Amino acid sequence: APGSALTHRPLAVLVNSGSASAAEILSGALHDNHRAVILGDTNTYGKGKIQSVFELQDGSALFVTVARYQTPNGTEIDRIGIVPDHSCVLPGAPASDDDEGSGSSSFMAGLPMVPGSEVALLESLMGDSCVVAARDVLRDEVAIVANAARVASDIVQPVAMQSTPQTTILPPPA
């Protein structure tokens, strides 16, 4: 879309093998436009086709691919998915045996939101390897931006405002 981004703050997108379709399109677009760093323990799902289904007279169906998803740079998403820029499996973390391939992720998906569960959710998120990795990447990005701003301010010295001479008006003698 035309126009500028709403923010230029560093952005991290967390993905995994369950990230599909619109999530892949968005993360691919943010990545290709240099707006976000992608973190994940695996590639995304790789759903890159739009299909129309036509029911036939005998009850069978015909699936026709009518379009394919691509990132703005032309990278195909189908069967490949989005490849993360950074792995969010922390070094030395024990591998998980679960069937989702979530590595050392400790986040409990589907945690019910009931009164008092915010603390459990926050603890789960703060212990998740992908959240920790995203926090570290964003901290590094912020440090780079802050350093660039510091260097720029050292290079461009503000021009000192020249003061205009002030005259003092004394009261008339009494």
Q: Structural class of the helix and strand makeup?
A: alpha/beta
Characterize the quaternary organization of these chains: single chain
Low-confidence sequence ranges? 96-104
Number of strands: 5
Please describe what this structure looks like.
- The protein is an alpha/beta fold.
- The chain has 3 helices and 5 strands, in the order E-H-E-E-E-E-H-H.
- The protein has helices at residues 22-32, 117-126, 129-155, and strands at residues 12-15, 37-40, 49-55, 61-68, 86-87.
- Strands 1-2-5 form a 3-stranded parallel beta sheet, with helices on both faces.
- Strand 1 (12-15), helix 1 and strand 2 (37-40) form a beta-alpha-beta unit.
- The N and C termini lie far apart (75 Å).
- Pfam families: Peptidase_S41.
- This is Tail specific protease domain-containing protein.
- Residues 1-89 form the Tail specific protease domain.
- It comes from Volvox africanus.
- Keywords: Hydrolase, Protease, Serine protease.
